[in-house]
Amino acid sequence: MTFKTVRDLETPSVLIDLDLMERNIALMQARCDDLGIQFRPHIKTHKIPDIARRQIEAGAVGIACQKVSEAEVFAAAGFNDIQIPYNIIGRRKTGRLAQLAKQADLSVTVDSKPVIDGIAAAAQAAGVKINTLVELVSLGERTGTTPDHALELARHIALTDNLRFAGVMIYPSDAAIRPRLLETLALLDRAGIPVETVSGGGSGAISEAHLLPELTELRVGTCVFWDWNCVAARYTSFDQCAMQVRATVVSANEPSRVILDSGSKAIHSETIDGQFGFIVEYPAARLHKVNEEHGYVDCSACPSPPAVGEIVHIIPVHTCVVTNLHNQIYGIRGERIEEIWDVAARGLVW
Amino acid sequence: MTFKTVRDLETPSVLIDLDLMERNIALMQARCDDLGIQFRPHIKTHKIPDIARRQIEAGAVGIACQKVSEAEVFAAAGFNDIQIPYNIIGRRKTGRLAQLAKQADLSVTVDSKPVIDGIAAAAQAAGVKINTLVELVSLGERTGTTPDHALELARHIALTDNLRFAGVMIYPSDAAIRPRLLETLALLDRAGIPVETVSGGGSGAISEAHLLPELTELRVGTCVFWDWNCVAARYTSFDQCAMQVRATVVSANEPSRVILDSGSKAIHSETIDGQFGFIVEYPAARLHKVNEEHGYVDCSACPSPPAVGEIVHIIPVHTCVVTNLHNQIYGIRGERIEEIWDVAARGLVW
Q1: What is the pTM of this model?
Q2: One CATH from 2.40.37.20, 3.40.50.360, 2.40.240.50, 3.40.50.1970 for A238-342
């Protein structure tokens, strides 16, 4: 079965507006160029080598992947500058990481000594040198460590044979982190440890990057498509969101209760303001609940609710988690399908 | 790479305790047998033909699938009694549904005239007769319709050449729905329309099935594995939950803030009591936030928090959405891996 226009697709289907995507790619690169920062798109948003290739062609320095298995897919597709901003733990994973270092210019981040030692052992066994950045804990309080401990880890890396200290990583790189970053950089400077890369990241990183002049690169994923989260955070607007999920109304027996064929298997379960997605054709509707295959829409505020069989388009709350649910997504111009992409790095949990 | 024991697996990995699964399958079948009701397992929970085969061997009458594409996978695997309790809309989907009716004893549910007419047109074009049940709206207020409208739809089906009225479907089949069910059955009886099947369903359906003696069959999915949702609803207990997600602690720089390598891509984003999963080894821990590859655990109530590199096991909030995220899941006895299952019907959104 060939798909020529969006009308040929069954629903739910994930559509990417190519004009908007290309504009988003160009705009992000231009902003980084203006700031004199390298752009390193995070591929977790699209998981598709062809889209990453367009980002590289626009000027990106390389890519970021969150998993060794994702990096393997992109290395096999010819990408040679790959960062994995994640603590890689476990003998098999670090072994695969070390093999990857033979194929690509690889860097990885760490926030503790056991993680460093595990990677070092694998690098030694494989006879490679792995570029290693230390993660500084940010206001998000996820992974990362303190300035003092970062210095200790940087020293440990510098003294470890098969590792090379490559710099500092922050996520998210809000401007408020600057005092902690400056403290870390001063400690490293005093210890005589040179810092090549200061890598920032997060959906909103670009809007505060001018307040963090120490950054040398930015890792951002969502900016290629954008989503409702990013609209709510005022990073963009709905009319710049390149991803929409095409859905069908499968039940509409009461005007206030309309059910879509798109639930948590199609649009995931993240919410914003108690809603699971924004319905473009019915801005007053509230997609307030999902089961796997059902989206519950309260249409009581809609002048005229949709009918059974009607097609609607949903802007997702979080684009990255949607891509991961679909085997294929579709690049469109107007109604015409120009690209049928396999989501090559989908579902890679290792 | 061969996996012999769970220690050979990288994390996150979905483990199914085979002893518990087999016990769950036997128990559910025995309960249905005791009630004199046919059991029709919903495959959305596991999406794996080999597990459905074990349910059939235990005595199940057939299976339920939520999508035509799922039904195609199971028909190809040799299943010949398949119900799709979903309004199938769209020329391609109804066409595929009609083709399936040539391969299997197929039934489908409807809640409106446009849905009936679409299926009828496809059945006519394919020269098949499709068993059609009318869905009665339940207290869950999802799909389904009222008793009066159900009668109207049943009449319409009975008068349509390529359809056969097969009965009434309810989800979820709580005992409180009985007055509405009895009203519907009385209307159908008065109209001289025989009702072959009264199909109930939902995780908790078995616990109230004795209060709905009109039911002829039960569709339940989660009972094969169970999950935290079902524990919270008192359908089961944690020690009967057959699915656990094996995870690694990737960061533990502060005793109260521990990060797992299992986030929304491994355990999904559904919550119960603000938590995304129950950590077996640390019952006092709270898995209170997820990103795609990170699970945030508050360990401040734990006597001694886990260390970096430590392995823990998570009982998911909702088992069905977890299966859908993984390409493979692993059947284990003790530490030994006995089954490596491809999740054959994973990610089938059409």
Answers
A1: 0.97
A2: 2.40.37.20
